[in-house]
Write a structure and sequence with these properties.
mainly alpha
Length: about 50
Amino acid sequence: MLAQTGEDVLAPGLATLADVLATRRRHDCRADLLALDTTDVGYRLLVADV
């Protein structure tokens, strides 16, 4: 999915992600998720034998 997205669309989000990871702000903005045992982010893998 991301492989088909243009660099101009991805670059701002990736820059923000890099900043969040570098400054460890992910613990502040996602503390609620860190307390969960599991989470469903909506991704599904479909496999078919044809």
